[in-house]
Amino acid sequence: MENLRIKRKEFEVVEILSKDTFKAEFKSETYLIKKYEPGSISLDMVKKLRKSNVCTPKIKLLDKKSGYVAFQWLDGVLISDYILDNDFNENIYKQIFKNSYMARAAGLNLDFSLDKWMLVNDTLYYVSEYCEKYDPKNDFTKLKMREWFFTTELADFYKQKGILFDKKRIKNEFSVNKEMVLMTCKYYL
User: Fold this and answer.
1) How many domains does the chain have?
2) Tens of pLDDT along 60-93?
3) Cβ within 8 Å of residue 177, ≥6 positions away
4) Nearest-CA neighbor of 163 among 82, 79, 85, 84?
């Protein structure tokens, strides 16, 4: 495979993940490298996320001229995959509410879909560069919060992805609402 040269550093491409996304190595460290159009909205979003204190992969190298960004490689599991075999735990709720608060404080809305978050050594990372100006109508608690609990919305998420989900894990509305209120009061306010 062809190597990538970013700011005088030669990265060996290990795997092509998509047209503009690569898994690469430099000095025995692994990186996720993304190519953005210089001056693009996506590159601006990456910069905004970096400043927001939302837990995201660290930017190790940013080349504004070429549009290449080298991120810390995360070796973890997407929350959408984790939940198929595990329960949500309070640590996950604490972190998702904290990240939601940080995004809101920075004036950003994030994508809180389960496939945009990764669990690495009990730390929750936002692995999408999507963000937009904050709008209260698009807040986590109004749009996606129910997906993060064992609800019919969680089952619908997996159904849309074509993944089988054990519907016996869905809790009754009273239990879900009680748990959501407790977690919101504990970590969001």
Assistant:
1) 2
2) 988 888 888 899 999 999 999 999 989 988 999 9
3) none
4) 84
